[in-house]
Amino acid sequence: MSKSKIQVKIGNITIGANCPVAIQSMTSVSVLDKDATMEQIERFERAGGDIMRIAVPDMPSVAAFRAVRAQTRVPLVADIHFDYRLAIAAIEAGADKIRINPGNVSEAHLDKIIDCAKANAVPIRIGVNSGSVNKDALHACGGDRCEALAYSLKQYLRHFETRNFTDLVLSVKSTNVRECVSINRIIADWGYPLHLGITEAGLLNQGLVKNSIGIGSLLLDGIGDTVRVSLTADPTEEVYAAKDMLVALGLRNGITFVSCPTCGRCSVNLPAAAQQIYDYVKDMNVNYKIAVMGCEVNGPGECSDADLGMAGANGKFVFFKKGQRYKTVDSQYAVEEFKKEIDKLTNAD
Ligand code: SF4
After folding, report:
1. Is the pLDDT of residue 301 over 90?
2. Residue after which a domain boundary falls, among 207, 223, 248
3. Which of 34, 116, 182, 293 has the most crowded CB, counting CB atoms within 10 A?
């Protein structure tokens, strides 16, 4: 359960306090290309994403954002930098949340954004990045970067609170995993929902590792209400990575998928079978454990607590249900046959 005390509603999704951790991503195409944006949002939704963020860098993008907003139920966050007028226009265009860095706008303009968000009941994510650590804050915190980032965020937070605006999500991101974890541990006690992510985490493999360590460590401590697994990859990959992380931590329904690394005992094309089965189950939102193992030596033992398992044996696959062997299938038919068994299991709910 999250440490946050305040709930924030973003379209039809509520985060914070006792709510499930929501998965976010960001479109990687210009919102001016409506078809490409919609295509990414639709794939994101099918993959199990909850909240999509869109960059809104200029006024033509606001008009495009409005058009996209009209075509989807997925909660949309307008990502704004520098120009307060874009934030106000995006709110009026139907944004379910806006994301700003308060350090990028003057106080007077920030107040205009706050007033507009309040009038429209639109929450704001206020974020600071480690790259923009403020020199005064650094001095006030004796050179401690984590304390300085938290200090900066607190200053902004106080400003919102003095204007009686608490419909907030907080985020402090860093490319440095340790730093990111440390800062979020500091701000977790403030009660607001937190958006977690390792910023600019890199390509798929490197990004998965950094995000899993950083976001995973915090989630294990009950910190975090929404996550973005930032990857230099298709936004859908970010959703599958976030889902796998949340399922692994028991924070979301989904298939727990187990497959072995294979070794000299394996007599079947296990990687191909495992990939096909994983692709078949990855969009399912039910709690089952599926195991795809390479041999009969360790396979049965290792999939004994799986709801369904298959293990290679002399060029064939042996199927297991709750650890009990129940049939053997030629490897060329095994994947399709196993999918039917998965359907029987999941349709029985
Ligand atoms: S399940 Fe069998 S094939 Fe797979 S790693 Fe273990 S011993 Fe090797």
Report:
1. no
2. 248
3. 293
The pLDDT, as a whole number, for residue 1 is 63
Question: Which atom of ligand 1 has the smallest separation from the CA of 296?
Answer: 2
- Structural domain harbouring 319: 256-347
Q: What is the pLDDT of residues 167-204, one digit of tens each?
A: 999 998 888 899 999 999 999 999 999 999 998 878 88
21: which 2 tokens? Answer: 């951790």
For the domain that residue 288 is a member of, what is the CATH number?
3.30.413.10
Q: Summarize pLDDT for 82-135 with one digit per residue, the tens.
A: 899 999 999 999 999 999 998 889 999 999 999 999 999 999 999 888 777 778
- Domain identity same for 48 and 168: yes
Nearest CA to ligand 1 atom 7: 298
CA of 297 to the centre of ligand 1 (A): 7
Atom of ligand 1 nearest to the CA of 298: 1
Q: State the distance from the centre of ligand 1 to the C-alpha of 262, rounded, in angstroms.
A: 5
Please give the full DSSP string across 180-234, using - where no structure is assigned: HHHHHHHHGGG-S-BEE-BTT--SHHHHHHHHHHHHHHHHHTT--SEE----SS-
Residues with C-beta less than 6 Å from any ligand 1 atom: 260-263, 265-266, 293-295, 297-299
